């Protein structure tokens, strides 16, 4: 286990050092270019007796009556007792710049006491955004991965039979507001905010598109660069008027940049996972770590009285206590880089749970020059 952990950490460190440069579009997103969440309320029909109980789900009955009224069928005053209908909530994500007539995937989940949506069909359901406008309509056959079956003495359920998905189940009726051609400047938001990464992104963009080498003493003059870091989270990029916005974003996104990452150690005590960043360093410390095992064994014995005596049979407790302690050697660990740190910890023969305890102790002593995140 120790060797596998050390090998995995060294492999990650080697990959980070060998291919540290990545594309700008992999470490950032364009502000405003995002999905929009849609939600709607609809009915699923065609279920095999696994729908809502209308007595327990009155909103399902009301929705059925409203739907039938719109179709010209009057059911007011007539009690409905169908079990093949279920009320559902329909959710979807409207992609940025989605055009009218394009299709998007939708998710369907039951609202009432239906036991399964398998075999059902979603009828026409408007999908609204937070502004109350209808941006898409959904309809189609449900794809349910879970199932449930029951008999008189036993039942079985696998997955979630009351949730389903319809690939390409909604048609976009209204495009999301905003046009790419109207943007004269873009804001790149970093996925992992960092001042150094933001500055490097701005420098790479200016080196690629700047015709005149700029200096930071003339930011307000005519040689102002087209990209400038605003804070640790965002970089403002001015679009050249002679370049198409989509092509310009594609060119910017493909530029390589080497993101900077903070020195951080993440440990998961539940699974014993330890992830150490390549910038983590440990000041020279002496570590001793030993395992103390206390084993208590109960072996009760039965004591029989002598024949023809007035004694009683009793249980006599017998307890054996054993103490084992291994390790306890004092080792010196100094970690100028990730390779040396992992080799030093692995040389001590510690398990992942031991490494977690040692890292926490090193952090408390002030020798761990990194942020320790315990999950």
UniProtKB/TrEMBL annotation:
Signal peptide annotation: 1-20
Protein name: Flagellar P-ring protein
Alphabetized InterPro entries for the sequence: Flag_FlgI
Family: Belongs to the FlgI family.
Alphabetical list of PANTHER family matching this protein: FLAGELLAR P-RING PERIPLASMIC PROTEIN FLGI (PTHR30381), FLAGELLAR P-RING PROTEIN (PTHR30381:SF0)
Protein role: Assembles around the rod to form the L-ring and probably protects the motor/basal body from shearing forces during rotation.
Subcellular location as annotated: Bacterial flagellum basal body
Subunit structure: The basal body constitutes a major portion of the flagellar organelle and consists of four rings (L,P,S, and M) mounted on a central rod.
Assigned keywords, A-Z: Bacterial flagellum, Cell projection, Cilium, Flagellum, Periplasm, Signal
Organism encoding this protein: Ancylobacter radicis
């Amino acid at each position: 286990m120790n060797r596998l952990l050390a090998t995995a950490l060294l492999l990650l460190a080697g990959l980070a050092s060998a291919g540290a440069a990545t594309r700008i579009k992999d470490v950032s997103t364009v502000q405003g270019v995002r999905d929009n969440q849609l939600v709607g309320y609809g009915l699923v029909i065609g279920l095999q007796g696994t729908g809502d109980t209308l007595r327990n789900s009155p909103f399902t009955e009301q929705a059925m009556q409203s739907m039938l009224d719109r179709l010209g069928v009057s059911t007011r005053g007539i009690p409905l007792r169908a079990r093949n209908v279920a009320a559902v909530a329909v959710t979807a994500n409207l992609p940025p710049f989605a055009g009218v007539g394009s299709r998007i995937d939708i998710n369907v989940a039951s609202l009432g006491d239906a036991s399964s949506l398998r075999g059902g069909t979603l009828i026409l359901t408007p999908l609204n955004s937070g502004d109350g406008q209808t941006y898409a309509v959904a309809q189609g056959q449900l794809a349910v991965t879970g199932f449930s079956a029951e008999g008189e003495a036993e039942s079985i359920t696998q997955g979630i039979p009351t949730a389903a998905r319809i690939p390409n189940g909604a048609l976009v009726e209204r495009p999301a507001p905003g046009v790419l051609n109207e943007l004269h400047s873009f804001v790149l938001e970093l996925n992992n905010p960092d001042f150094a990464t933001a500055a490097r992104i701005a420098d790479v963009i200016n080196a690629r598109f700047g015709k005149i080498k700029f200096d930071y003493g003339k930011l307000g003059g005519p040689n102002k660069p087209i990209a400038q870091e605003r804070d640790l989270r965002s970089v403002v990029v001015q679009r050249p008027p002679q370049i198409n916005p989509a092509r310009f974003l594609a060119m910017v996104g493909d530029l390589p940049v080497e993101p900077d990452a903070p020195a951080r150690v993440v440990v998961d005590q539940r699974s014993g996972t330890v992830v150490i960043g390549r910038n983590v360093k440990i000041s020279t410390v002496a570590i001793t770590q030993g395992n103390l095992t206390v084993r208590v064994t109960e072996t009760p014995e039965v004591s029989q009285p002598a024949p023809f005596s007035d004694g009683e049979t009793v249980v006599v407790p017998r307890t054996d206590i054993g103490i084992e302690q291994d390790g306890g050697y004092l080792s010196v660990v100094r970690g100028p880089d990730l390779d040396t740190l992992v080799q030093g910890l692995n040389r001590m023969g510690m398990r992942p749970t031991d490494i977690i305890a040692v890292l926490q102790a090193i952090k408390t002593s002030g020798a761990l020059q990194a942020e320790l995140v315990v999950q």
